[in-house]
Amino acid sequence: MSAALQVTAFGLALLSTLFLLLATCTDCWMVNADDSLEVSHKCRGLWRECVTNMQDGVRTCDQYDSILADHPVKIVVTRTLMIMADLLAGLALATLVLGLDCITFLKEDPCVKLKMCYGAGVILCAGSILGLIGSMWYAVDVYVERAMLVSHNIFLGVHYDFGWSCWLGMAGSMGCFVASVLLTCCLY
């Protein structure tokens, strides 16, 4: 039972870590489209902004000036939190691999292997919290930006939606959290 639970938690943690990495690297955190004309589709991300022409499918991307340049707070905070979540999830995966019962590393000391699984669960929990805060920070800021435009009658038919990168970051964070619960609460 314990080995099956460990492997399940490892699979979920691996998939969730991949989601977090994809969310950090991709550039569709906020979708900005024009409802009236359906001419272009703009995705804003943490690293660049891309516009796709809906008629011919041509995509052009503009890199942000520099990592060290002045950026909006939502981009800086989300970048920082997502990178930290990626690093912690990667560290937790490495620790979990060594702590799995099916791996022969430290086979003669099962107590240490169990502590490694618990430690991986705690590290995954910390990474999931950072990833969820980063994803939610960006999502709330997108919502506030849209609400400000609507309240000032600057809306002009443009709508803002959460992009698939934002949803991927939230899903990866929740998956890491579930894996951490499996490792810390359900593992005997």
From TrEMBL:
The keyword Kinase does not apply. Residues 1-28 form the signal peptide. The chain crosses the membrane at residues 118-140, 162-187. It is a multi-pass membrane protein. It is found in: Cell junction, Tight junction; Cell membrane. Belongs to the claudin family. This is Claudin. The lineage of its organism: Eukaryota, Metazoa, Chordata, Craniata, Vertebrata.
